[in-house]
Write a structure and sequence with these properties.
single chain; about 220 residues; alpha/beta; 9 helices; binds 1,6-di-O-phosphono-alpha-D-glucopyranose; binds magnesium ion; B-phosphoglucomutase_hydrolase; EC 5.4.2.6
């Protein structure tokens, strides 16, 4: 049996959230906006443009489109500077083993991410060749919890949504998978991701027998 396995990127394959946080913190500091780790949770799975709006709302700051565009460029340049030295050592625990198991069992794999920097990250970590399809922030118009990104990925793999499995670390992403009638697997805390069909702390907790059962 063949299923589509769709992976989110940030928080699932790599922990780029820490770099997004550093880059946003610089912008927030410049604007005298307090931006804590808890605030950063609000930005997970959210687009770059929406992320800036959330930060400005936190600080009750209004800004011109010109200023916003400048901060968005500045944030991304800073974020990219943290990715320069990225390599396979930044792949989160257990991820590589599951990707390998899926490949060995001829299961199609896709990426479904909100990030516009997804491809270079997959290249740097040496994972790009595992992905038959990459759908990212450059391809979609509707952000998670809209299922567009995952539906597009399933379609590219030629698999129905009902036969698709999504790995997600964000609440919006789990909701997107559910709305798309896909099987949602939450990666993270059960208290946050309780809407997911299955929940694991990280990939090292996922046994290959669990994946084998999904393929059956
Ligand atoms: C990721 C992150 C978000 C980030 C978004 C856009 O989404 O979780 O925090 O704002 O990408 O990233 P970029 O600025 O690189 O386009 P995902 O869907 O991979 O978790
Ligand atoms: Mg994520």
């Amino acid at each position: 049996n063949t299923k589509a396995f769709i992976f989110d990127l940030d928080g699932v394959i790599v922990d780029t959230a820490k770099y997004h946080y550093l880059a946003w913190q610089k912008i927030a500091a410049e604007l005298n906006i307090e931006f804590t780790h808890e605030h950063n949770e609000l930005l997970k799975g959210v687009s770059r443009v929406r992320s800036l709006d959330i930060i400005l709302e936190l600080g009750k700051v209004t800004a011109s489109q010109e200023d916003k565009d400048r901060w968005l460029v500045q944030k991304n340049e800073d974020y990219l500077s943290y990715l320069v030295d990225m390599d396979a050592s930044e792949i989160l625990p257990g991820v590589f083993e599951i990707l390998k198991f899926l490949k060995e069992n001829n299961q199609p794999i896709a990426l479904g991410s909100a990030s516009k920097n997804a491809r270079p990250i997959l290249e740097k970590t040496g994972l790009l060749s595992y992905f038959e399809a990459v759908v990212d922030g450059n391809d979609v118009t509707n952000a998670k919890p809209d299922p567009e990104v995952f539906l597009m990925a399933a379609k590219l793999l030629n698999i129905t949504p009902e036969n698709s499995i999504v790995f997600e670390d964000s609440v919006a992403g789990v909701q997107a998978a559910n709305i798309g009638r896909m099987t949602s697997i939450g990666i993270g805390e059960a208290s946050t991701l309780h809407e997911a069909k299955y929940i694991f702390k990280d990939f090292s907790e996922i046994e290959t027998s669990f994946i084998a059962n999904l393929i059956k």
